[in-house]
From TrEMBL:
Catalytic activity annotation: L-glutamate + NADP(+) + H2O = 2-oxoglutarate + NH4(+) + NADPH + H(+)
Pfam families named among the record's database cross-references: ELFV_dehydrog, ELFV_dehydrog_N
Name of the protein in question: Glutamate dehydrogenase
SMART domains: ELFV_dehydrog
Length: 454
């Protein structure tokens, strides 16, 4: 784990993993895996650099750039680039650490990494963003490659930024290769990639419903936070499957459906266009159709709800909000965001699962539930390697299979390593953590990253 007390996000991610490993029979059955835990918790490499660029007034600006190359035992480092003023090493180490095990759960050959900068793209012109991206990639290109490290987008990095960065890499390296994912369809991108995280989240929760005996999505009332890529496509998919979307949000506040008025595909499309322009939800022309609560997340305001999908950012569900969701009747909560629930919230959900058994809320961690995005990034890498493209149907079918496998391996691993009472739903957070950790630990052992006495 970290030996720096100023890395709270990373320590939270580490402690969540350790808690589930310690409260299972893993170390009892395989005590040597404690050594693997020590090794996997330290990044293989951390790259930090300055990013100097010029704004439209000709003034020089400088930001911090990072790439945390955490673990490559299963394949090239794979994980997004985040552009946001809150970016620091703690956040990127937490994201990279989670990414190791998330990527392992996809079943694809991908290691874990994360990167980005404290640059804020909001309010910047296209020219300023292009100049920043060129400067950022001028340094990062020294450390990445199709068989070394394949970044993708994350918060603040859309197709526009990927394009600027890919062009810089291509010119400087004199190579056209699958070094970034989330590319344009005309130059190496994959169909279904924009939709993948949101769609995959919905497919995953569908398997939860089936195992819990709750039917399918038809008629379910769904609370969603966020209004970016993940939230948008999760909302569209659940509406397509017959559910009702009750909320969306952004960093300024939340829209809550009232009465018979719920979010429609037309609402989602209009909000997508707003967000492409980096405008707030409050600019939506039909905002009067919804209750707007400034500065609030939706969880305590949505009323009766069956499913909660946090799709904004880390730690967006706390203890009080977790209790409010349970009181509102929620039976499923799955993270579309990374570490969307804080540790106290997870403890509330897990305690309810043990107490209420089959009638409890069932919690799914982001490393399993939102792995669809990186899974299709992995499929984009495969298409790039073969210099071909698959149809939407082919990619979507592969995504469905990956999400089913990620769910099943978490379920089966929980049954193997975590004692459950009769009628109790298995712990998906424990099962997913253990399954991802064991897969990576085995690969590290085979490659000599850690070993035991002969």
């Amino acid at each position: 784990m970290s030996n720096y007390p100023t890395e709270p996000e990373f320590e939270q991610a580490y402690n969540e993993l350790v808690y589930t490993l310690e409260n299972s029979s893993l170390f009892e059955k395989k005590p040597e895996y404690r050594t693997a835990l020590q090794v996997v918790s330290i990044p293989e490499r951390v790259i930090q650099f300055r990013v100097v660029w010029e704004d439209d007034s000709g003034k020089v600006q400088v930001n911090r750039g990072y790439r945390v190359q955490f673990n490559s035992a299963l394949g090239p480092y794979k994980g997004g680039l985040r552009l946001h003023p809150t970016v620091n090493l703690s956040i990127l180490k937490f994201l990279g650490f989670e990414q190791i095990f998330k990527n392992a759960l996809t079943g694809l050959m991908m290691g874990g990494g994360k990167g980005g900068s404290d640059f804020d793209p909001k309010g910047k012109s296209d020219s300023e963003i292009r100049r920043f991206c060129v400067s950022f990639m001028t340094e990062l290109q020294k450390h990445i490659g199709a068989d070394t490290d394949v970044p993708a987008g994350d918060i603040g990095v859309s197709g526009r930024e990927i394009g600027f960065m890919f062009g810089t890499y291509r010119r400087m390296q004199n190579k056209f290769e699958g070094v970034l994912t989330g590319k344009g369809l005309e130059w190496g991108g994959s169909l279904i990639r924009p939709e993948a995280t949101g769609y995959g989240l919905v497919y995953y929760v569908g398997h939860m419903m089936e195992v819990a005996g709750a039917g399918d999505w038809k008629g379910k009332r769904v609370a969603i936070s966020g209004s970016g890529n993940v939230a948008q496509y999760a909302a569209l998919k659940v509406i397509e499957l017959g559910a009702t979307v009750l909320s969306l949000s952004d960093s300024q506040g939340s829209f809550i459906a009232q009465g018979d008025r719920t979010f429609t595909p037309e609402d989602i499309q209009a909000i997508m266009e707003l967000k492409e322009q980096r405008r707030p939800l409050t600019d939506y022309a039909k905002k009067g159709d919804f209750k707007y609560i400034a500065g609030a997340r939706p969880w305590v305001h949505v009323g009766q709800v069956d499913v909660a999908l946090p799709c904004a950012t880390q730690n967006e569900v706390n203890k009080e909000e977790a209790e409010a969701l349970i009181a509102a009747g929620a039976k499923f909560i799955a993270e579309g965001s990374n570490m969307g629930c804080d540790l106290e919230a997870i403890n509330v959900f897990e305690a309810n699962r043990k107490e209420k058994k089959g009638d409890a809320i069932w919690y799914a961690p982001g490393k399993a539930a939102n792995c669809g995005g990186v899974a299709v990034s992995g499929l984009e890498m495969a298409q790039n390697s073969r210099r071909l493209g698959w149809s939407s149907e082919e990619v979507d079918d592969k995504l469905k299979a990956i999400m089913k496998n990620a769910f099943q391996i978490g379920l089966d691993t929980a049954k193997e390593y975590v004692t459950s009472a009769d009628g109790e739903l298995p712990s998906l957070v424990a099962g997913s953590n253990i399954a991802g950790f064991v897969k990576v630990a085995r690969a590290m052992h085979d490659q000599g990253d850690w070993w035991t006495k002969a």
